[in-house]
TrEMBL record:
Alphabetized InterPro entries for the sequence: Homeodomain-like_sf, HTH-type_TetR-like_transc_reg, HTH_TetR, Repressor_TetR_C, Tet_transcr_reg_TetR-rel_C_sf
Name of this protein: TetR/AcrR family transcriptional regulator
Keyword DNA-binding: yes
A single BP term in Gene Ontology: negative regulation of DNA-templated transcription
DNA-binding region, residue range(s): 41-60
Residues in HTH tetR-type domain copies: 18-78
PROSITE patterns named among the record's database cross-references: HTH_TETR_2
Keyword annotations of the record: DNA-binding, Transcription, Transcription regulation
Presence of keyword DNA-binding: yes
Any one GO molecular-function label of the UniProt entry: transcription cis-regulatory region binding
Length: 233
């Protein structure tokens, strides 16, 4: 039977998706993109899922675990190349460029990448293995590949974190500009020629040069590796 016309019809809410670790992580990334890393918490994610924080703990134990899982999920979207000995150097650059892009696309996640000393999620492990495989395909020993992969990873995470600090507001552009003016005034007050090179480098360090600086660093690291080929065998 239908309800009388004067009755308020019952509200039929759509069934909520079943709670899972994947859904919790995806929701955490939604909060990250909308509100920033500092807003991500078990309580905030539970609120977004219209449930209580206690219901999340069966799937994710802590906030630290949650953000690590979020980082690992971000890495999942980065394609991993099959090693080609003829292109190992370009492939390494492409992989770390893609990692940087993935972190930039999720502002704040680079802080997690920097703080997690040894990421052990399945995607982080696949990335580590991919880097080692590319370097081994280039002819490096396992020891060389391990040290090189660590250096390249640290460089990329640090670069991503620096960029993230600007995009998330951790760094106040006005404060930085003020400090820059103070430094210029101070250095201009010193004897002429005291810092002849330093006074001319400011133009190379701004948001517009970030891509160029990242590429230079990659070339520098990989060029140094190529020069070491054959050592420590």
């Amino acid at each position: 039977m239908s309800d009388p016309a004067w009755r308020t019809p019952p509200v039929r809410r759509a069934a909520k998706p079943r709670l899972s670790q994947e859904l919790i992580v995806r929701t955490g990334l939604d909060v990250l993109l909308a509100e920033g890393l500092d807003a991500v918490s078990m309580r905030r994610v539970a609120q977004a899922l219209e449930t209580g924080p206690a219901s999340l703990y069966a799937h994710v134990a802590t906030k630290d675990e949650l953000v690590e899982l979020m980082l690992d999920r971000v890495l999942e979207d980065v394609p991993l190349p099959a090693p080609d000995p003829e292109r190992w150097r370009d492939q390494v650059k492409e992989l770390f460029r893609a990692q940087l892009g993935a972190m930039h696309a999720h502002p704040g996640i680079a802080r997690v990448a920097w703080q997690v000393m040894v990421p052990v999620g399945p995607n982080a492990l696949r990335h580590g293995e991919a880097v080692l495989s590319l370097l081994r395909a280039g002819g490096f020993t396992l020891k060389q590949a391990a040290y090189a992969g660590d250096a390249l990873s640290l460089y990329t995470k640090a670069f991503a974190y620096e960029g993230s600090m600007w995009s998330t507001g951790e760094v106040d552009p006005e404060d930085v500009a003020k400090r820059g003016r103070q430094m210029t005034e101070y250095m201009d007050s010193l004897p002429a020629g005291a810092f002849a090179n330093m006074t001319r480098t400011g133009e190379f360090f701004n948001a517009g040069t970030a891509g160029e600086r990242f590429e230079f660093g990659l070339d520098m690291l990989l060029g140094g590796l190529a020069a070491m080929m054959g050592a420590d065998r």
